[in-house]
User: What shape does this take?
Amino acid sequence: MLRASERLAELGLTLPAVAAPLAAYLPAVRSGDLVFTSGQLPTVAGQLVATGKLGAGLTAEEGAACARTAVLNALAAVAAEAGGVDEIDRIVKIVVFVAGTPDFTGQPQVGNGASELLGQVFGDAGRHARSAVGVASLPLDAPVEVELVARVRPTPSVQLV
Assistant: This one.
């Protein structure tokens, strides 16, 4: 069975550096065996890959590609807290925020960009609960923002002698 890092390599993907926060928050926080990410935008090297709204110049397919990029950023934040992507044991839940026109209803298809990638990387452990929510706008005019909750392997306890 391939590890997550090996599956990413097979897909020709590498985890980016953790995106710097835009305000007063952390990219991810670990609580026990769970890591919660802050909202991650579809950025590559600090630049949004697209801007605007779904249904007004951006298609659901373009939104799905943005969700895929954003979830890679979320995985990078989780991996930084967990000690590497191979320490991620299960994807528990994702939330996909989609900036769209009032008549855009393709949020589930946009969210599939993130969900399908997680399945490719983690197999059954990548299957997760999900919400895909339409919103009026997102930071920096991003079309998509993704939050992720993952279960990670426990940190080995230190034995004092």
